[in-house]
Structures are given as C-alpha cells and as structure tokens.
C-alpha cells in the first residue's frame, strides 16, 4: 500500500521510500519539529523483528550508529522511528572502483567509522550479524553510519537449530554453517568490504578472475580478516581500526 504522505503519531510525515531491505521499507520523514527522520516499516508478520531492533536501542547510542527513537505503527503495520543518516548506501556512494584506488581517503574513513560502530556494539555484548553495503550509509566525505539492527543479537547467541543469519556474499564461514556468531564474524564482513575496496569485486563475483598483484600495505589485514578459521581472525574492532589507519599512514 502507498504510505507516502502518511502522518505518523501526528508528528512524522512520510515523504518517500529511501531503502528496501529483506524485511522492511525505510521512509524518509520530516517531523513537525522540522528535522529529518527515518521510519522503518515492517510487514505485520515480522513484528518480532521490530521488537528485536527496539530492544537493542539502549546500546545504539554512538555517533556512528543510527539510533532507534521509538516504536510505532503505520496504517496498522509495526514500525520504528529512527534518526536519519545522510548519504547513500556504500555501493551507491563508491561508484568509481576500486574505491581504495579512486577515493582512498574517503573509503578508509568509511571503514574506520564502521569499525568504530562495531567496536561500540561489541562492547555492549551485541553483534550486528549483517555487515554489508546496504547497512552502511556514507556521506560525500566518506563519513559513515551503520544501520539496520533487526538481525542483531547477543554475542554467541545459540538457537535450538543451526540458523544461517546474514547476507550470503558477506557471511563468515561460521555464519554459513549456522553457528553462534561473535565479533570476529562481523569483522569478516569488514574484510569482504576491504577486499571489494581493494579489488573492485566481491570474493566470488562472476568474472572477477584471479586477484592482481598488489603492494597495498592493507593486503595483510585483508587476508587476516578473511581467515576461514574464526579463531585466527581478529575479534576486536577498535584494534582493527588502529591497524587499518596505521597501515594506511593516516592519523587516528
């Protein structure tokens, strides 16, 4: 059903859809206070997703994370009101590829901000579990915010049966196996993003061919983040951020 123009709670006017996920549609909205907001609308059968994301809201208080402000309904559908992140999803922001060649400083800033957000999230005992370009909003200068926490959950949360969580191209090997996920699983997703930034293609993208030789100082970090063995992979996001910026010879 068309929702643009709907006034939510007498306060938030939906303007247009700005994002589509597997389980929701995100609308740009303007509040009666004149400020921009995002309203994330879920199908009725996925109310539990909205409740799950809302339950994480106390942990989502960081400059690099879009906050969840309140739970609401839009024409009977479960919804969340969020802070608005300016910019475009990562792949749409970096159209000149490889991003580390074309816009090195901006892309490194993006990764550093993602790692800041993950470091905060992990310190609260939560893993994102779906680190991918669609969940990273990037502004023109490369500054970024992480969004979409309806798949997030406690570190090493176990389920009664193996559950594959995340998006295939960015899933860690343990996510593919349906194992409980930890910080190192989120950092595998960062490794996929770093690989894409260096080579302009995803790990198994059709037609990508063998990797070209590179002298980029970040190559070792890329390999470490993509270790198939989760116990050989880094598990501290802020340590990875420091290493990233040190190898790139940028101040941190």
TrEMBL record:
Protein kinase domain: residues covered: 12-252
Annotated positions binding ATP: 40
UniProt keyword annotation of Transferase present: yes
Keyword S-adenosyl-L-methionine in record: no
Domain of life: Bacteria
Record Gene3D superfamilies: Transferase(Phosphotransferase) domain 1
UniProt cross-references to Pfam families, sorted A to Z: Pkinase
GO MF entries: ATP binding; protein serine/threonine kinase activity
Keywords tagged on the record: ATP-binding, Kinase, Nucleotide-binding, Serine/threonine-protein kinase, Transferase
Matching InterPro entries: Kinase-like_dom_sf (IPR011009), Prot_kinase_dom (IPR000719), Protein_kinase_ATP_BS (IPR017441), Ser/Thr_kinase_AS (IPR008271)
PROSITE patterns hit by this protein: PROTEIN_KINASE_ATP, PROTEIN_KINASE_DOM, PROTEIN_KINASE_ST
Protein name: Serine/threonine protein kinase
Organism: Deinococcus maricopensis (strain DSM 21211 / LMG 22137 / NRRL B-23946 / LB-34)
């Amino acid at each position: 059903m068309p929702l643009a123009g709907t006034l939510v709670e007498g306060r938030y006017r939906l303007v247009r859809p700005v994002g589509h996920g597997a389980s929701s549609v995100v609308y740009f909205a303007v509040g009666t206070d004149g400020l921009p907001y995002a309203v994330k609308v879920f199908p009725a059968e996925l109310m539990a997703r909205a409740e799950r994301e809302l339950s994480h809201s106390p942990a989502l208080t960081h400059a690099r994370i879009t906050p969840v402000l309140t739970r609401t309904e839009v024409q009977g559908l479960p919804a969340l009101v969020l802070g608005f992140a300016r910019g475009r999803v990562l792949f749409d922001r970096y159209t000149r590829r490889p991003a580390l060649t074309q816009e090195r400083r901006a892309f490194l800033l993006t990764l550093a901000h993602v790692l800041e957000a993950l470091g905060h999230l992990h310190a609260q005992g939560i893993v994102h579990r779906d680190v991918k370009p669609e969940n990273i909003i990037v502004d023109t200068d490369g500054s970024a915010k992480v969004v979409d926490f309806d798949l997030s959950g406690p570190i090493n949360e176990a389920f009664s049966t193996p559950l594959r969580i995340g998006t295939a191209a960015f899933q860690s090997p343990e996510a593919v196996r349906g194992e409980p996920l930890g910080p190192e699983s989120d950092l595998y997703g960062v490794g996929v993003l770093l690989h894409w930034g260096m080579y302009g293609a995803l790990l198994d993208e059709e037609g990508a061919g063998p990797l070209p030789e590179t002298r980029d100082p970040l190559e070792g970090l890329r390999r470490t983040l993509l270790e198939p063995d989760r116990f050989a992979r880094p598990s501290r996001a802020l340590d990875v951020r420091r290493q990233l910026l040190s190898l790139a010879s940028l101040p941190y």
